Amino acid sequence: MHVCVQNPQSPQDQVSQTVQGLSENEMLSLDIGLVGDLDREAFQRLYARTSSKLFAICLAVTRDHAAAEDVLQESYLKIWDRAKGYDPERNRPLAWMCAIARNAAIDWYRARARHHHVSDDHLNLQESEAAAADDRIIAMNREDQVWTAVSDLDAESEQELKSIFLLGLTYPEAAQRLGLPVATFKSRVRRTVIRIRRKLADD
């Protein structure tokens, strides 16, 4: 009698089969759990999926590109260290990571404020703007269809929308960066959002 012996699956193959059919949140939770077991490949996947979103949080607080990059790296070191204690029943994965990035950025800002005598009011403003960027990113992350709709926009509209939702810029900052009056920029973003909503409704 001939017996067919199958080769055992590698851990990578097992993970690949496991993630098929999972939602974005479930995949993030899975990778955070693997990072808690010191899985470097899972950490790389986690970074690739979330770094642009966490960078927006860091930038919303620091208002400095180089500082935001430093804070981002510090945030991922904290994610690596704390992944073992992550509980998916208590926190959505992206919300958990955004909170780590926001707190790291606020710590950076407070340290800078002590040296530059920045007022508490200004710190409160930075915190609220970071939280707003955090909320926008999490909300958009829940709707995978939104990103498909964004990718179908013309390049100009896509750039305008991403300056608000990904880079974490305020409307005046984004308008200045694109060389547009603030009122004009707001109107254009509003029209783009309406277009996306209509497209999602049609789909």
From TrEMBL:
<dbReference type="GO" id="GO:0016987">
    <property type="term" value="F:sigma factor activity"/>
</dbReference>
<comment type="similarity">
    <text>Belongs to the sigma-70 factor family. ECF subfamily.</text>
</comment>
<dbReference type="InterPro" id="IPR007627">
    <property type="entry name" value="RNA_pol_sigma70_r2"/>
</dbReference>
<keyword id="KW-0805">Transcription regulation</keyword>
<dbReference type="InterPro" id="IPR013324">
    <property type="entry name" value="RNA_pol_sigma_r3/r4-like"/>
</dbReference>
<dbReference type="InterPro" id="IPR013325">
    <property type="entry name" value="RNA_pol_sigma_r2"/>
</dbReference>
<dbReference type="Pfam" id="PF04542">
    <property type="entry name" value="Sigma70_r2"/>
</dbReference>
<dbReference type="GO" id="GO:0006352">
    <property type="term" value="P:DNA-templated transcription initiation"/>
</dbReference>
<keyword id="KW-0731">Sigma factor</keyword>
<keyword id="KW-0238">DNA-binding</keyword>
<dbReference type="InterPro" id="IPR039425">
    <property type="entry name" value="RNA_pol_sigma-70-like"/>
</dbReference>
<dbReference type="Pfam" id="PF08281">
    <property type="entry name" value="Sigma70_r4_2"/>
</dbReference>
<feature type="domain" description="RNA polymerase sigma-70 region 2">
    <location>
        <begin position="46"/>
        <end position="114"/>
    </location>
</feature>
<dbReference type="InterPro" id="IPR014284">
    <property type="entry name" value="RNA_pol_sigma-70_dom"/>
</dbReference>
<feature type="domain" description="RNA polymerase sigma factor 70 region 4 type 2">
    <location>
        <begin position="145"/>
        <end position="192"/>
    </location>
</feature>
<dbReference type="InterPro" id="IPR013249">
    <property type="entry name" value="RNA_pol_sigma70_r4_t2"/>
</dbReference>
<protein>
    <submittedName>
        <fullName>Sigma-70 family RNA polymerase sigma factor</fullName>
    </submittedName>
</protein>
<dbReference type="InterPro" id="IPR036388">
    <property type="entry name" value="WH-like_DNA-bd_sf"/>
</dbReference>
<dbReference type="GO" id="GO:0003677">
    <property type="term" value="F:DNA binding"/>
</dbReference>
<keyword id="KW-0804">Transcription</keyword>
